[in-house]
Automatic annotation (TrEMBL):
InterPro entries per the UniProt record, alphabetical: CHP03980_redox-disulphide, DUF1858, ScdA-like_N_sf
Protein name, UniProt field: DUF1858 domain-containing protein
Cross-referenced PANTHER family: BSL7085 PROTEIN, DUF1858 DOMAIN-CONTAINING PROTEIN
Chain ranges of the DUF1858 domain: 3-56
Domain of life of the organism encoding this protein: Bacteria
Organism: Inconstantimicrobium porci
């Protein structure tokens, strides 16, 4: 499955739980919190001051 920046954190956690470790490595420790269920990867990257392209690349490795 290809992960894209418009997918929600919740969607990634449900469909590719092995990617949680990558999200945590990037400082997204609240992958299970309610806001993460509806927040896109791009939105979360912006909130955390991360490069969304680097995050997407890491998630798709």
């Amino acid at each position: 499955m290809m992960i894209t920046k418009d997918m929600t954190i919740g969607e990634v956690v449900r469909t590719a739980p092995e990617k949680v470790a990558t999200l945590m490595e990037f400082g997204m420790g609240c992958v299970g919190c309610p806001s993460a269920q509806a927040e896109t990867i791009e939105e979360a990257a912006m909130v955390h001051g991360l490069d969304v392209n680097a995050l997407i690349e890491a998630l798709n490795k």
